[in-house]
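Annex B. Sample input.
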Amino acid sequence: MKILVYPHDMNLGGSQLNAIELAAAVKDLGHDVAVAGQHGSLRAKVGELGLEFIELPEPGRRPSRKVVKALERAIAQRGIDIVHGYEWPPSLEAELACFDAPATAVSTVLSMSVAPFIPTHTPLLVGTEQIAAAERDFGRALVELMEPPIDTRLNRPGLELPVREMSQRWGIRNGGLTIAIVSRLAREMKLEGILRAIEVIGRIQGGEPVQLVIAGGGPAAGEVAAAAAAANRRTGQLRVVLTGELEDPRWVYQKADIVLGMGGSILRAMAFGKPAVVQGESGFWRVVDESSLPGFLFQGWYGAGAGSGQGADALQAQLRPLLADAALRQRLGDFARRVVVERFSLQASARRQVQFYRQVLAQGQGRNRLGAEYTLAAARFARYKFSRLAARMRGSVAADDFNATAALRSAGASGRPAVRA
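Annex B, continued. Sample output.
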């Protein structure tokens, strides 16, 4: 098969890392795979993994006519069979590019909910059983589960990584304990928890020295930097270290004693054998252990708490036993590594992805491209744009709205209990 993978962004983030790593693993299975996108820090990783990169024009408004035309050219010139868009803008652009072309659009959505204006005939992969159930109820023709894959060979304990060199560069202590966050610094979903983590680190007194290392960049970098500077001033120490976006953040995972995060980032931490505390919204924090695992496997590595005002206390309660007990950290780290190896290995995910592509292609080109369906999708998109405009006028627009509205809060997706803080 000839496959063109189109991540929603080429800067550091869980969805786009998954897209690129899975693309390379599918290529290793003998398929012709290229990655398309705009310029960004992950372009180097595309090259390192031996993938061809096709640069697309800057999109502007989404979906972008310029991007669609560029995808159409790539399909025609390269005989592409599958155009695989990640998240809603690439998914729509892939669908439009394939409309009159001998190629099929496929969508992966790893956000916490799926944009309703992605056409219901578009074959869809989602990251949790809960979201898959909700999308089948919505009427989508083909929905399958693709949990965030992890390359357990490149993410594991014992790798030779520049931990000492980088720790010296950023002022990270050799002694004491290191808590790490590797995340895009986005205002939706991420910022609330990151600010609460900084608050908690500023509170800790006594015991072993503790530092919080935050690796990542994004639109909320200014707020995070201000909070970190304030915490460091209050404590008179370098309690919070900001590295900015890192081309390869694996040394941070290896250095950490405990990792905080959500989604693919928390799975990478678990692959390194680290005890993990899952971050959500509204004050949600929960350690990954035997009791919380079933809920995370159903709803994803995320949760909703009782209120954002309780987040600092909730996190402190989860951290307290981990900070005090090295044996507990080791046990939970070993447990986390086993979970990732047994369920989330990249190689197994690549085989499932190829099987999904074959299933899609076996259905042929009759993708139920009915005028009524496109009219309905267009109407939903128009409503979405109108609501965004109205929110912008109120000053309350979200930059990442399909992560800001989590599926675990949606009706019809609550067939099993959610993980509670």
